[in-house]
Amino acid sequence: MKRILILGAGTSGTMMANHLKHKLKKADWEISIIDEEEAHHYQPGYLFLPFDIYTPEDIIKKIEDYIPSGVNLIKKKIEKIAPAENKVYLTTGSSVPYDILIIATGAKIAPEETEGMLGTEWHQSIFDFYTFKGALALRNKLREWKGGKLVVHITEMPIKCPVAPLEFAFLADSFFQHKDMRNKVDITYVTPLSGAFTKPQATAALDHLLAEKNIHIESDFAIERIDAEAKKIFDYGGREIEYDLLVTVPTNKGDEVIARSGMGDDLNYVPTNKATLQSLAHQNIFVIGDATNVPASKAGSVAHFEAEILTENILHYMKGEPLKKSFDGHANCFIETGHGKALLIDFNYTHEPVKGSFPFAGIGPLQLLKESRINHMGKLAFRWIYWNMLLKGIAIPFVSSNMQTTGRKS
Question: Smallest Cα–Cα separation from 64: which of 77, 74, 56, 79?
Answer without folding.
Answer: 74
